[in-house]
Design a protein that fits this description.
The chain is mainly β. It is 3% helix and 43% strand. Strand 4 and strand 5 form a beta hairpin.
Length: 348
């Protein structure tokens, strides 16, 4: 099966962006742009056999260039927040951009990978591999690194993501994909009646700036408990600090177990679409689009708060500054390799 390539507009630097469509024999389609290696669309069939695009996005590269909510973003070098926008590594303090409330670093700040043109190294009907070079100290992180992300659509309706990189100095590597999912369709409104399950008995407590306090808490007996499937909206308005501080769900959950395993799932009764999340990452950030306000998206859609949910597989936020958290430090010459998959089906 061949891939499809089409024009996807220009950037402010007059760079020509392209859109690549991957697909399988079941009719699943995933659209990727070389501007930012962003995920533009994931199209799957619902219980009636109709196609639904289940991720939020924009119509062209300029939307991704101007948008600030990270629709489908390939986030790197470090996803999520770093408290105080600094960290210590090998006895040296590294200062980062304070792009989150003027205090903290969020998603690596300026020059994040999702705002750069990537080179397409190889592509076929099922997969695409994109490449960028990340220079030493480019975002404040030490070490040069050649970075690749591979997106793949499989015949069992999995959308697989593989990140790879080898730095020439000790550094932080913690990449994620920031797709916003709504299994009734990207333009179908609130996601709160869709059901979530997480393979997580603990989460990282955070302060009012959404920076971890260092405490890892049990979810049992709290609104953060998704160990049994429940609607996203059931507890979202509870008077609970980690919900109030995040204006909804915006916290990192510690995934049970080690290695590549199931991290969570999402189900929409209306469409019948079911999605499972698999990863080798230690944590997943559950985010209910709390800060998306009247964002103009693709096909004339207007997205608002809680119109989607993100499952951002990654190291815990601010992990480089917390000894209790699994470390995102990648040693000189060591290969950074991370895999995540979103697998779609219909619940009978």
């Amino acid at each position: 099966m061949d891939y499809r390539k089409e024009q996807f507009g220009q950037t402010k630097k007059s760079e020509n962006a392209s859109l690549y469509t991957l697909s399988n024999e079941n009719g699943m389609k995933v659209k990727i742009t070389d501007y930012g290696a962003n995920v533009v669309s994931i199209i799957v069939k619902d219980k009636a056999g109709n196609e639904r695009d289940v991720v939020l996005g924009y119509d062209d590269a300029s939307g991704y260039e101007q948008g600030d909510v990270f629709f489908g973003a390939c986030v790197g070098r470090n996803a999520n927040r770093i408290g105080g926008a600094k960290f210590s590594l090998n006895g040296k303090i590294y200062e980062l951009a304070k792009n989150d409330g003027g205090k903290n670093n969020l998603h690596s700040g300026p020059h994040c990978f999702h705002t750069r043109m990537w080179e397409v190294e190889k592509v076929d009907g099922h997969s695409i591999t994109l490449f960028i070079h990340s220079k030493d100290m480019e975002q404040g992180y030490p070490g040069n690194a050649d970075i690749r992300v591979t997106y793949e659509v499989t015949e069992d309706n999995a959308f697989r993501i593989t990140y790879e990189g080898v730095p020439d100095a000790d550094t932080v590597f913690n990449m994620t994909n920031h797709s916003y999912f709504n299994l009734n369709g990207h333009d179908s409104g609130l996601v709160l009646n869709q059901k979530v399950w997480l393979n997580a008995e603990k989460y990282t407590e955070a302060n009012k700036d959404s920076v971890p306090t260092g405490r890892i808490l049990d979810v049992a007996g709290t609104p953060m408990d998704f160990t049994e499937e429940k609607e996203l909206g059931r507890d979202i308005e509870e008077d609970y600090p980690d919900l109030c501080f995040g204006a909804g769900y915006d916290r990192s959950f510690v995934i049970n177990g080690e290695g590549y395993r199931k991290a969570g799932s999402l189900y929409a009764k209306e469409s019948g679409i079911f999605m499972e999340v698999y990863t080798d990452c230690p944590a997943v950030q559950l985010y209910t689009a709390n800060y998306v306000i009247e964002e103009k998206g693709k096909n004339s859609a207007v997205y608002d708060r809680r119109h989607a949910v993100c499952f951002e597989t990654q190291f815990s936020p601010d992990a480089v500054n917390h000894n209790k958290f699994k470390s995102p430090v990648c040693k000189k010459g060591q290969k950074y390799l991370s895999r995540t998959a979103y697998v779609f089906g219909i619940r009978k």
